[in-house]
Each structure stands twice: as structure tokens, then as C-alpha cells.
Amino acid sequence: MSAITKKIDLTVLGYAVLAILLFSFLFISQVGNRHLYVFLIGIGLGVSLYHASFGFTGGWRNFIEHRESSSLRAQIIMLGLAVILFSFFIGSNSWIYHGKMIGAIAPVSVSVVVGSFMFGLAMQLAGGCGSGTLFTASSGNGKMAITLVFFMIGSLVGTYHFDFWKSLPSFGGVSLMTEFGEVNSVLLQLSVLILLYYFIYKSDQKRNVNFKHTDIFDFSNFDLFKGPWPLILGAVLLVFFNVLMLQAAGHPWGITFAFGLWAAKIVQFVGFEVSSWSFWQLSYPSTALENSLFADPTTVSNLGIIFGALAASALAGNFFKASLINKKILIAAILGGFFMGYGARLSFGCNVGALFSGIASGSLHGWVWFLFAFIGSFIGVRFRRVFYS
User: Fold this and answer.
1) Quick check: 121 pLDDT over 90?
2) What is the pLDDT of residue 223?
3) Which residue, of 81, 106, 187, 261, has the greatest Cβ tally within 10 A?
4) Within 13 A of 322's CA, how many CA atoms are on the CB side?
5) Which ranges of the chain does DSSP label H, i.e. alpha helix?
6) Where do the domains of the chain lie?
7) Residue of 259, 293, 267 lying closest to 152 (CA atoms)
8) Which letter does DSSP use for residue 31 in this model?
9) d(CA 134, CA 316)
10) Is 193 helix (H, G, I), strand (E, B) or coil?
11) Please, what is the angle between helix 56-66 and helix 130-138, to 10°?
């Protein structure tokens, strides 16, 4: 590491720590302890995502192209742990939030099918999902910063078209816990996850002669401050922090609602009114649009992820690693970001809010999202070659 690079990393680390302290004071003094807890959980998520390189996009692409399954297997384990733990908390009262904890239940609809497919395709173009875009952009990746901007724009456009997509056929929200009971719901989802794990495991074993089923548990190169962290540690920590988020916010971890909210706040600031759009007249969005950004738990947790990933990358000496951005990659970042944002709005979330938190909550839409996003990724991997060849 050169002296200049080291100086930059130390400077960035200093600013990140200062920002964390300032925002912590702000939340304590202006909003309340609950938002401070959400912010601190977000920091933990940002550090975990960065050091474990825990993104869905690359893991899905590796399996589609090479049947390399380590990341996908870690994701399946993560979902299984979350399904079990969430079943103990959904519907009960939080000791932090002091209210009933609700799951991420969303309608099973045409918009979910279209939006998740669109998201899966677009994330392969962009090279990152919702969480991946946020933590990589925060750690100095210029391409993903561009992706994040257009993610916000796509999310806002999605809110404008809300009425059209809402008018299409929908079965409404389907909670497997309500339909089958908590125990049966857990057993059903775990059975599906075990079958998926077995299929993924055998596909990798058949294709790759150097396959090792213990690779996700490998701590041989573990470094607490510089990484990498093994995938299994990342999976366990993400479940742990999502359970804490459920306790602190009253709902599971989500990311993409904040992106649309940020864009809406910006365009309103410059004089363009969006509050008349039907999406922003719904109870939760209208309240979020009217109140301070710091009152929105998703924004607060995203800020935590930003500063957590920023501090982790600087501490590891990896902030602002140069990445090639040519014309093709720029177009991929713009298209990928926009259609991820639009798709996330149609399908009620991304890999985190819809898939991770949805399945953990026993929502059928989470499984529909998983299926069609993976189909979208399968096609997106092919389109990606046009831009990254």
C-alpha cells in the first residue's frame, strides 16, 4: 500500500467515525433511542456485507455460469436460519419497539412477477443488487455510485406508475404462517430450502472437480479488520442483524423504499410535486414524505450501512479501489440501476426486503420473487456479456 493510499484510507476512516458519532448524537437528541439502535444495526450490516462480500448478484451469476455454488449455499443457509428465528418473533411484542412486530408480507401479483424478473435481469447488468449497490458504492466504487443514482430514479418512476401496476391481477398478501400455522410453515419452507440446497450442492459437485462442501466454513484467511470473512459468518451475522432490525424497527430489514423516498425528497426540493401521486398518498409513504428523512427507519439503517461499509473498507485499506468505467459499463450501470429501482418498486423490495425478509416472514411473495428474479438473472447473465466483453 502506497503512502498516499494509506493516508486516504486513514482520512476516510476518520470522517466515517466522525459521521457515525455525529449521527448517533443526532438520533439520540432529535429522534430517539429506537432510531439510534436501527442506525447501529445498519453499521453492523454494512461491515458484515463488506467483509463477507455478501451479495446475491455474483453468487447467482457464478452458479448460472459455472455451477459454483458457495455463495448460493450460504444464502440458502441464511434463509433457513431466518425462517426458524422469525417464527418466534413475528406477531409478538418487541422489547425495543414496544409494539407488535410485523413481517414483510406483500401481495402475490402480476407486478411482483414482472418486477422481480426485471430486477434479476438488471442486477446482472449493474453488477450488484440492492444491498450490494449500497455497500459497494459506499466503499468507493464509482460504477456502483452511478448505479445507485439511477436506482433512485427508477424507484421514483415506479411510484409514478403505481396505479397501473396495482390495477393488474393480484391474490393479495399470503402469509404461510397464517395459512398453515407457524410450525407447519417453518417445516414447509425448510423442506423446500433443503431440496434447493441438495440440488445446488449436487450440481456443483458434478460440474467442478475441486468442489469442497466446507468452503463456506473456511476461516483459514480470516482477518477481523481486513477480511475476508467466511460466507457462513456473513450469513449468520445478516440473520442476527435482521432479527435485531425486527426488534428495533418493528419490521424486518429493507433497503429500496428509502431510495424512492430520497429521490422524491430531492425532486420536491427543486419544486416538482409528487405528493399527489397515489403511491405517496398511502399511509406509510405519505408520512415518510412529510416527515424528516431521519424519521424513516429504512433511511436510518441505510445510513448505517453506508458508514459501516465506508469505515470497513477504509480500515481494510481498500477504499476507492479504481474500477474501469468505459462507455459500455457506464450504460450497463445506468440501465441496471434504473430497472432495479423500477423492478423493486413493482415487486415490493429487492433481494433483502422481498426475498430475505419476505421468506423469513413466511410470505409467499418472497418465494415468487426468488423464482422470477433467478429467471431474470439467468437471462441477465447473457445480456451482461454485451457490456462487459
Assistant:
1) yes
2) 84
3) 106
4) 3
5) 3-26, 33-52, 56-66, 70-89, 110-126, 130-138, 142-160, 162-166, 176-180, 182-207, 231-249, 256-269, 283-290, 297-315, 327-346, 357-360, 364-388
6) 3-388
7) 259
8) I
9) 18
10) helix
11) 120
Rg value, the chain, Cα: 20
Look at the chain and count its residues. Answer: 389
Q: Which amino acid is at 189?
A: Q
Q: What is the pLDDT of residues 23-59, one digit of tens each?
A: 899 888 877 788 999 999 999 999 999 988 888 999 9
8 Å CB contact between 231 and 52: yes
76 touches 88 (CB < 8 A): no
3-state secondary structure of 161: coil
Distance separating the N- and C-terminal Cα atoms of the chain: 30
Residue 88 neighbours by CB under 8 Å, 6+ apart: none
Dist CA 154 CA 338 (whole Å): 4
What cell numbers appear for 35 in the block? 432510531
Contacts 24+ apart (CB under 8 A), 86-94: 86/243, 86/246, 86/252, 86/360, 86/361, 86/362, 87/177, 87/182, 87/183, 87/185, 87/186, 87/362, 89/243, 89/246, 89/247, 90/177, 90/246, 90/361, 90/362, 91/177, 94/246, 94/247, 94/248, 94/250
Query: Residue 373 above 70 pLDDT?
Result: yes
Residue type present at position 389: S
